[in-house]
């Protein structure tokens, strides 16, 4: 299996799991919650991937007049967006598995005043 196919399989698996949340109830996480978690994780991963392989104009010695010398020569946004999607899909699958299989007790993360009944 090539690397590209593996990446595509991860993204498709995350999409199928998310879509299946419409029909199958996953404990502690729903369809919209899954989407919100994915989008928040996607933005966080994006900002970690963006600085990869950036070469400023001053490094190449070809500064366009009137532009910032540190501006990238070729930002390569499309591959970075794809890499962000692949990484986020893998992270999201792990998060959904941990929450869905209740490997972590979410009550441990509760905050604020505790209401005791009984």
TrEMBL record:
<keyword id="KW-0472">Membrane</keyword>
<dbReference type="InterPro" id="IPR009935">
    <property type="entry name" value="DUF1467"/>
</dbReference>
<keyword id="KW-0812">Transmembrane</keyword>
<keyword id="KW-1133">Transmembrane helix</keyword>
<feature type="transmembrane region" description="Helical">
    <location>
        <begin position="7"/>
        <end position="24"/>
    </location>
</feature>
<feature type="transmembrane region" description="Helical">
    <location>
        <begin position="30"/>
        <end position="50"/>
    </location>
</feature>
<feature type="transmembrane region" description="Helical">
    <location>
        <begin position="81"/>
        <end position="101"/>
    </location>
</feature>
<dbReference type="Pfam" id="PF07330">
    <property type="entry name" value="DUF1467"/>
</dbReference>
<protein>
    <submittedName>
        <fullName>DUF1467 family protein</fullName>
    </submittedName>
</protein>
């Amino acid at each position: 299996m090539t690397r590209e196919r593996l990446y595509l399989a991860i993204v498709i698996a995350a999409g199928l799991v998310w879509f299946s949340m419409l029909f199958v109830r996953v404990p502690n996480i729903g369809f919209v919650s899954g989407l919100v978690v994915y989008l928040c994780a996607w933005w966080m991963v994006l900002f970690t991937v963006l600085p990869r392989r950036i070469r400023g104009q001053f490094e190449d010695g070809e500064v366009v007049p009137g532009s910032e010398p540190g501006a990238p020569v070729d930002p390569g946004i499309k591959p970075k967006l794809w890499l962000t999607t692949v990484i986020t899909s893998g992270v999201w699958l792990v998060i959904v598995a941990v929450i869905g299989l209740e490997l972590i007790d979410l009550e441990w993360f509760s905050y604020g005043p505790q209401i005791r009944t009984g």
